[in-house]
Amino acid sequence: MAKALEDKLNDCVVIGGGPAGLTAAIYLARYHLSVTVFHDDSSRASIIPMSHNHAGFPGGISGTELLARMTAQAQLYGAAIRRRKITTLQKIGNGFVAEFENGSIRSRAVLLATGVVNRRPAMPQATHDEAVARGLLRYCPVCDGFEVTDKPVGIIGTGTKGFKEAVFLRSYTKDLTLISPEDVHDLSEVEMSSLAHLGIRVEVGPIASTNLDNDMIRVTTPTETYAFASIYPALGSDICSHLALQIGARVSDEGCITVDGHQRTTVPGFYAAGDVVAGLDQISHAMGQAGVAATTIRNDLGDQAPLVRC
């Protein structure tokens, strides 16, 4: 069945409803541009139980509350928010057509802010979600390493990624154990020596079981059971840049979208911001990129035709 094409031509369609996408929507709407945000409730920010390093909230703010506030602010200025997953993106002439289930929408510009998906450790979904909600499983030591100061911490990972995560966390606590997700560690002799020098234990996995116990998370390996205040998976992430690939935008070997200093991709009229672009994977950084992208979109559209109030 053919998808219904909406009549309205938007100035910009924003794909992604996390901090980057919503910040851009606020800017674009305040520039008096027509903007529609599409999202599928998959922003990583939504699973943050409490962020303590987001400026302006000394008592912390949960990811869901932050997104709700940003959504309300974008809507206040006229941005449309739609819970629909964009499945296909096409560039047609000087504009774009974005398709979703049973419909499509046209726009002069597109901002992609679809982020990344963390690779999760092997454990039941319910256990994973509860552990994240309780701060027993954490994905961002830059965000919340402070919260594990002087506590026993486990890192699930190996190779250079696991090594770097363990070394980074060593500035917060001396009680660290690096556990491989498989039955062997892929660490170089230099990395093993460095870990030993720093007093970081190295344990061969895989993890046989994971249990939540009051304020601790217990993991059992083939040789021992550990109790940690938190576990950090160092397993990498998958970049959600498939829509960029559909229209031929350049991406890195890892899949991050290539942009210039103003968040323009290699496809005219197509922009990207947030974690889908190589960067710090921080809310503040994503919001900063979004402000730059939105202003660039406004100015680029103005270059095509003067933006005037009637």
TrEMBL record:
Keywords: Flavoprotein, Oxidoreductase, Plasmid. Residues 11-290 form the FAD/NAD(P)-binding domain. It comes from the Bacteria. InterPro entries: FAD/NAD-bd_sf, FAD/NAD-binding_dom, Ferredoxin-NADP_redctase_2. The keyword Oxidoreductase applies. Pfam families: Pyr_redox_2. GO terms for molecular function: oxidoreductase activity. PANTHER family: THIOREDOXIN REDUCTASE 1-RELATED-RELATED (PTHR48105). This is Thioredoxin reductase. It comes from Rhizobium acidisoli.
